[in-house]
Amino acid sequence: MTTYLDNAASTKTDGRVLDAMLPYLKENYGNPSSTHKQGKLLKVLIEDARDLLADFLGTKSKEIFFTSGGTESNNFAIKGFAFASGDKYHSITSTIEHPAVLETFNYLSKFGYDVDIVKPDLNGCISPSDIEGKIKGNTKLVSIMHSNNELGSVNDIKSISEICKSKGIFLHSDTVQSVGKITVKPKELGMDFLTLSAHKIYGPKGIGILYIDENVKIDKYIHGGSQERNMRGGTENTACIAGLKCAIEILQDSMEEDIKHYASLKNILIAELENSFKNKYVLNGYQNSSLQNIVNVSFLPDKLYVSPGMLPILLDLKDVSVSGGSACSSGSLKPSNVLLELGIKESVASSSIRISFGRFNTKEDIYTLIKALKEIFKAD
């Protein structure tokens, strides 16, 4: 049986979520745009889910738009804002953003949009002063993730937003890793755009949202229909919307306990690492300001050696699932770009793993991981 410790990549769908989805796959299979009873029933589901998400995030219902997930939401926000602007403005982002953000800005740069990319500090956080130092007269958009998907480091988005607001700049934040692990209220934090993905919070893959502040002008991203208040064409994914709705309902009741559970597992893991590999490993990221469900650890190759990039593969052979970085860059033996941006040597970054806990993990999973690491490193 596999010990799954890669919840930052994707979580197990909660059984209650699956139960909530099944009626919309078996009986209630109509089109939400239809005017008959089947269609109206689905339309009610969609709007109820939108209201619930708005309540959870502290926004207005009309500011919530359903998408296919975090990648589409990031593209929607960044490209949609650019399409609506009408001029080739300047943007600021960071080198440790998710590829869905970095590649979108790279795409826009081909059409004359100016983009500056700031580096993180040694703990994996983006300094508000570094953002302020890059602002130009034509800067219109800043995109900084709320927490990093490989390190768990949480950025000071509130301070960044205050700088942006003082200069009339809009702020987009990818909160895919944060939601469910820390309280996120976009209006309190000063975000103009927020992205969320269901499969990071025990919901189904293929559904997410984009929050768009009602005062922001943005163009539609997917054309072809009047769905989502004429902002995203295409028949709504009602079964997955039902799943996301249920996942949020569960979070409303369990988030505090979930976070305590993650923190407990994190403390056990760090204690076990210290007991088993003292002075032979380092933790990456700012531990005092990080998500409780992510631990990124590098094993020092001069003391514990495996071939570069092979540690996640060797653990997989022992039925322990972790990652060497972002799931979106898996399949490569190259070291994590995020770790390299922190100034970590390539040899050390190549012997690093990201361990991420979920609601269904136990302390026995930690002991299984440590046992597997000891066998790989042939440590006593």
Could you explain how this protein is built, in words?
- The chain is α/β, with parallel strands linked by helices and 380 residues long.
- The chain folds into two domains: 3-10 and 255-377, Aspartate Aminotransferase, domain 1 (Alpha-Beta Complex), CATH 3.90.1150.10; 15-250, 3-Layer(aba) Sandwich (Aspartate Aminotransferase, domain 2).
- The protein is built from 14 helices and twelve strands.
- The chain has a seven-stranded mixed beta sheet with strand order 2-8-7-6-5-3-4, with helices on both faces. A three-stranded antiparallel beta sheet has the order 9-10-12, with helices on one face. It has a two-stranded parallel sheet with strand order 1-11.
SSE layout:
Blueprint: E1 3-4, H1 15-21, H2 23-26, H3 37-57, E2 64-67, H4 70-85, E3 90-94, H5 99-109, E4 114-118, H6 128-134, E5 139-143, H7 157-166, E6 170-174, H8 186-189, E7 193-197, E8 208-212, H9 227-230, H10 238-277, E9 281-284, E10 294-299, H11 311-317, E11 320-321, H12 337-341, H13 346-349, E12 352-356, H14 363-377
Helix pairs in contact: 1-10, 3-10, 4-5, 6-7, 10-14
